[in-house]
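Sample entry (209 residues):
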Amino acid sequence: MIRSLAALAIAMAAAIPVRAQVAGLPVFNNGVPRGLTVALDAGFPDDEAGGGETFALTGGLGFGLLGFTATVGSTNTDFSDSETIYGGTANLRIIGGPLVPVSVNLQGGVGYTDIDGTKYTHVPVGVGVGLTIPLPVLGLKPWIAPRWDYLETDPDAGSGDSESAFGYSAGLDMNFVFGLGARVAYDSVDRDGGDASTWSVGAKWTFGL
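Predicted structure, serialized as tokens:
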């Protein structure tokens, strides 16, 4: 009986479709950070993406055409208690600048989490396209980012598995005065188990360097 329950728990953990850059959050591909950026986000995956809620802190740093982000947070799914999540991205701006409203950038990322003994490593690689819309009291930046999406699952008891799929994310950044801003994002991945989606809402602060 105990062995059967343990095997069932491992099978359920292996079936959790962790598909975001870090578990429970969309893949944020909204351009190369300008200066130092700090963001707090809350993510809400649907049932196909594991359910539950995610809360994370992201730091971003930009140097001209290059930018990097790092994320750490906590997620709980419908199948597990709270688990720590990690992730990061490297970004290269191809088109865009202070006086150019359209931006295009390449992004590669990695995310990692361990849920009930099953390790998930996620690698998204894609292109992001954004449009800056200046308004009197704030700036708006809608963006969309298609990607190639790779997920590797490695349970402690059993052989690992990997899967590649097409995914995309989209969002809207709202930048107010004094570096304060807000953002919303949506993410979708089409895998063998079905279409999984995640949406998020967050606040951010940008400090020019």
